[in-house]
C-alpha cells in the first residue's frame, strides 16, 4: 500500500474545499444592500438566497408586444399578394376582388404581431364589370382574440354609409403565412351563416350575406413584410367544417391591390374595438352603433384604462405619503 505524504494530502483536501466553496458561491451568491430608514440609520443587509434576483418573463407581457408593434409600419412597405395557387379556369362565380391599399395599410398598422385582429369587409362592383368586387369599407366590431383565432361580435349594425355596399366577407391577421384554411376559420364563417338565433335579430344582414361570394381575406405577418391571401369556402366547407385537414373545403380567390379608389373604416361609437385587455366587458352579442372614424391602435389608451387607473393609484399613494408631517427633516 502506497503511503501519501501529509503535505500532498493537505493540498488535495484544500483543493476539494476550494471547489466546494466555489460551487456554493455559484449557487448562493451573496448580495449586500444598503438602506436608510426614516431615523437616518444605515442598514446593511447581506442575503444568500436568490430571492428577487431573477427576472420573470412571459409571452403575455403587453409592454414588449407594444414596442414590437412599431415594426408594423415598415411592413406595410412590403405587401405581397399570393395568387400562385389560383385555379387557371377561374369561373365568373368567383370573380376578382380588388382592395384599396390604404385600408390594408391602416388595418395592419393598428393590429398586433401575436394576437389576431378581424373585421367585416364591404364593397361593391364597378358599373362596367359586375364580376369585380371593390373592397371599400372595413367594419371593425368589438372583438377579443388570441394567437390562433379571433372572436367578433355577432351584432351587425346598420349605417348610412353601407346602403350602397354589400358584405363581401371578413378579414383577419395571423402570425404565420398559412396557405390553407384551418378549422377555426371555417367554423367561424359557417356559424355566422347558419346560426339562425343570431341572425333573426338582423334580417337585413341575413339577406345580404351570400356564402357563394363571401371571402376570407388574411394578412400574414411574414419576416419584414405582409402577405395577403384570399379564400372562399365551398359547399363541402360549410357542411364539413369539422374536418381540419380536408383540402376540398376551400379554394383560393384572386385579390388585387389598387390605389385608384380609397376606402374608409366603421367603428363602434365609443371608439373601443379591442377588448383583449378588458375581456370581462366583452360578450359575443355586444350591441354597438357604427360610425365613420379612424381606428385607434391595438394598445391605445382607450383600450387599456385599467393600466392608467393603476398609475393614478400609485401616484395618489405617493402624494399621501408626502403630506404626512415628520419632525426629522
Question: What characteristics describe this protein?
Answer:
329 residues; alpha/beta; Cytidine Deaminase, domain 2; 2 domains; eleven-stranded mixed beta sheet; two-stranded antiparallel sheet; pre-mRNA intronic binding; U5 snRNA binding; U1 snRNA binding; PROCT
List the helices and strands and how they pair.
Elements: H1 6-27, E1 31-36, E2 42-47, H2 62-68, H3 72-75, E3 79-81, E4 96-100, H4 101-109, E5 118-124, E6 132-139, E7 143-145, E8 150-152, E9 166-174, H5 183-194, H6 196-199, H7 203-208, E10 215-222, E11 225-233, H8 235-239, E12 250-252, E13 254-258, E14 264-268, E15 290-292, H9 305-322
Parallel strand pairs: 3-11, 4-6, 4-13, 6-14, 9-10
Antiparallel strand pairs: 1-2, 5-6, 5-9, 7-8, 10-11, 11-12, 14-15
Number of domains: 2
What share of residues is helical?
Answer: 25-40%
Categorize the overall geometry. elongated
- Radius of gyration (CA) equals 30 Å
Largest sheet: 11 strands, mixed
User: Per CATH, what is the topology of the largest domain?
Assistant: Cytidine Deaminase, domain 2
How confident is the prediction overall: mean pLDDT?
76
| CATH class wording of the largest domain | Alpha Beta
Protein name: PROCT domain-containing protein
GO molecular function, one term: U1 snRNA binding
InterPro entries: PROCT, PRP8
Domain PROCT: 215-325
Provide an overview of this structure.
- The protein is an alpha/beta fold and 329 residues long.
- The chain folds into 2 domains: 42 residues, no CATH class; 243 residues, Cytidine Deaminase, domain 2.
- The chain contains 9 helices and 15 strands.
- Strands 3, 4, 5, 6, 9, 10, 11, 12, 13, 14 and 15 form an 11-stranded mixed sheet that branches.
- A hairpin with a 5-residue loop joins strand 1 and strand 2.
- It is elongated.
- About 8% of the residues have low confidence.
